[in-house]
Amino acid sequence: MNEKLYEGKAKILYSTDDPKVLLTHYKDDATAFNAQKRGSIVGKGEINAKIASRLFQVMEANGIPTHFIDQPAPNQMRVKAVKILPLEVVVRNIAAGSLCKQTGLPEGKVLPQPLVEFYYKNDALGDPLLTRERLFLLELATESQVEQLVKLALQINTILQDFFSQCGITLVDFKLEFGTDSQQQILLADEISPDTCRLWDAKETDPNRRVLDKDRFRRDLGNVESAYQQVLERVLQQADQGL
What we know:
By secondary structure, the chain is an alpha+beta fold.
């Protein structure tokens, strides 16, 4: 019997017979605004597990080390055990969400270059945006780790932008999490999915209809399941062509 090690907003982590391998179960639960808004998206766990599995495989094929091992069931993923860094690494290509609220930039403004931001992974504090000085003050990562995280985040952004572009999807922004293995190597962890990315249909100009990600749930736009399903179908089609 696998022991439950951790349950988050979107996933449950279980032990396996191998201490170096964990089992991730993806849930249908949906949360927004630091879990102040809660709900359920039918089939989300299975859809996100499939999308994340394929995108981790795309990452590995492009030289990005990840925690992904395989997908033993539609809503599960086997992963390498890592110690998660308490940081959310956000990469932004187009102004949206909190960037607009905090800076006054209009939604949809293409940024002159990708913006990499660090947020403290701490629900009690509301996952605040960090300056590098605060990051080092809290000893959340070393200087060399931060340099590596920025480098990896930008590499991942380039890979994802190209991949999603071929899917007819614009990659607006996304959140990454990383962990260290027993050799202290930094691995891409968590997931890459419509839960963690802002994805817009490249052919759609209407600001509501173009949304293919969790903003449909956050903003009560409806058709959440069909948007996630559309992303899955495009990702699988493109991944099958490329892998």
